Amino acid sequence: MTTALITGATAGIGAAFANRLARDGRDLVLVARDTARLRQAADELGSRYGVQVEILTADLSTDTGIGAVEDRLRDDTRPVDLLINNAGFANRGAYLDVPVQDELDMLKVHIEAVLRTTTAAVPGMRERGFGGIVNLASVAAFVPRGTYGATKAWVVNFTLGIARDLAGSGVRLQALCPGFTRTEFHERAGMGTSSIPSWGWLTADRVVDDSLRDLARNRPLCVPGKRYKAAVTAARLLPVGGLGKLSTTAGRDYRKG
């Protein structure tokens, strides 16, 4: 039986990955900051699907937290065959409105943690000739707006580059780029969502289904939903200046509330 490690596993897309993978018969290692929520999720998934569920409390904005996940991924006696780097957050406010430390914490979680955990997981997967890594990015990666989009652009380019380097090794990588998804994400960031039309929302289950389907097909970039695929295509074709202006205007409305 294979094992998947999921960061940010107690809510939103991370929780949807945990539920789907447990239903598929995978053992799990759930990583998050809240031990009580981790234990509750582990008990529910283990009872419902009969899989082994391990918990690891770790704050990925700290070296200690990242190091704990690295150590687990390097444990060859308990190999992890699928890594889901889902942990992430957004800061409410425009550039200079957000404290620099909050921006640095975002860089730590979105970039350093992804780099270090991917690097910890790949050698064992490559040696076994099998494995997968899904790094959560966003459609914001293709829009020139703010630190959040910049970090997600890094995730996309890093993942696509490593996927190319590891071609033929049996290790598959994917940059997963969802659009607006109904989770706790926006509420935690203090962001209003009333300006987002109902057709603009994805469900976490839809995002997970598309991701795992594309991973099985060895597609290194996954953009769930036809509308968001079209948006990403447009983002790559439109002039950067005009796209940035559109994004900033939308973002200003989005932050209201």
UniProtKB/TrEMBL annotation:
The keyword Cytoplasm does not apply. Pfam families: adh_short. InterPro entries: NAD(P)-bd_dom_sf, SDR_fam. Keywords: Oxidoreductase. GO terms for molecular function: oxidoreductase activity. One of its GO terms (cellular component) is membrane. It comes from the Bacteria. PANTHER family: DEHYDROGENASE/REDUCTASE SDR FAMILY MEMBER 7B, SHORT-CHAIN DEHYDROGENASE-RELATED. Belongs to the short-chain dehydrogenases/reductases (SDR) family. This is Short-chain dehydrogenase.
